[in-house]
Amino acid sequence: MQQEPVNMPSSTPPEPGPNDPKLKKKPDTLTKIILTKFFRNKLAVAGGIVLFIIVTMAIFAPLIAPQNPGDVEMDLLNRLAPPSTEFIMGTDDFGRDIFSRVLYGAQVSLLVGFLAMLGGAIIGTVMGSLAGYFGGRVDALIMRLVDILISFPNIFLLILLIAFFSPSVGLLIVFLASLGWMSTARLVRGEFLSLRQREYVLAAKTLGMKTNRIIFQHILPNALGPIIVASTLSVGNLIIVESVLSFLGLGVQPPTPSWGNMLQSAQNYTIMRDAWWYPVFPGLMIFITVLSINFVGDGLRDAFDPKMR
Amino acid sequence: MLSYILRRIIMAVPILIGISILTFSVMHLAPGSPTSMLLAPDIGPEVRIAFEERYGLNDPIPVQYVKWMGAMIQGDMGYSLVRVGMPVSEMIMNRLPNTLILMGASTIIAIVISIPLGIISARRQYTVTDYSVTFGSFVGIATPNFWIGLLLIMWLSVNLGWFPSGGTHTLNEPFSILDRLHHLFLPALVLATADMAGLTRYSRSSMLEVIRQDYMRTARAKGFTENTVIYKHGLRNGLIPIITIFGLMLPSFFAGSVVVERIFAWPGIGDLLITSVFQRDYPVIMGITMISAVLVVLGNLLADIAYAIFDPRIEY
User: Could you give the C-alpha distances from A71 to A11, A137, A175, A195, in angstroms and in order?
Assistant: First the structure.
């Protein structure tokens, strides 16, 4: 009997990989192979570094930001001041420092993106596991729900929910998560269908193991790779969706700064004529953040792909 | 063929029913009853009871759903709460042509830009051109298109004055097709950017697949010029999978149009949707949700049928 690949987050067979021809050397663990492959990808590493910087700056915003957006003061002397050493991203129409607001906005945008991703991944994993493990009617029901939700632009459902519930940031995260689990569910289900018949799962069943334990210890760890990749890529998308909603005035409400609602207040003729920095910087932050996340996600995908060497 | 199309249509029905159930459930789960929305708060209980009786608000929820759905199918979406007496269907139909014009123009722009880029990128795989196109599509995916819209308005409309910043036409002037196109260009371009990146990547990989085929080598061996080989033998086969991609992109197209219409004050259904959310005009919101669902499902259906027509290898 082969060793069980319990802590190996991929569906590759647990034989020595084809990349170590010298069999006398102890084969690398899969985690190590994946990490090595990830760190060889320059774009992914660059994305990871940028992302790390942005997250750190967002967490330590109170220490870094020159102004605290909590005490919203109107500073009419510095209204729409161009970028300078004092205000590195300039000021907005209230004379507030845009750089500070961008940092605090990062907290909101990243938090919403990350928590909604986590929620979506959990719901998706549970739904996919139920569908894949039990099959039959449960599977048919869940997969039809997935089909319905995927075939429809979910921003409409989000807007519908927002229209009826006028949500807080917390509820917004719940809504985003409850409409963002479908691709994970499909992935997990697929993984279950292919793993359900594997010898080690049959062996575990024959030994009388509990369903829970089979799912969590023997099947899910194998699906971890694709789940991580899909979830990482979804964070970028969620950050964009949040910014779109906030831009439309349906997401995070001012005075709490978010990248989207800053852009909403920048959409004004005088500001666009006189103060290019206001519409540019918050958008640039969304762009850089999402681009970095996508580079990391793509790097992870290649690293987890056993066909790519 | 006919039976294939019929089968597809029948498969689309459960999806529409599913979406209508979701929409209906949101309405029922939401706080606040229709009675409290429509009637003045100081109205007496007997009026309230009569009102609920008259509009079937005491019926079991499944009965209410069936009634609502029955009316929807007949095109009766109720009346606006804000513009009193205005049928929702009329409000939507007034706006829908603008949305369809915008989407049509964007589709054309996306095709004209993305497919050639994809072909060039595939022909020169692993060259600087290819890497630039791939990197460019990464950038495109990460850029929120409302931000591109804002920047273009700032640059081309506000500062240079080359394009109008919103609306479908210059007010108080006779109809002119040039003026319309002038207003249409920026919003259509911005909406197109939403799907351009994805479309370029799909065209590239689809062409790459085709380029390696045996019949391409045969065509070259016969002495055709490289352009004939690529565009006559390759493109026709490479385009087939792209049809499906169009169907899959439709939801994001609809989502994009909401924002784009909002930025450019384009009077389509997306703009109407957001206005209605702010005015709490619930029947309009539900009507637009259902109409978009129907259009998306219809679009997917058309893409499936087109695929079947263009790909002779498909068996029904």
Answer: 52, 56, 30, 56
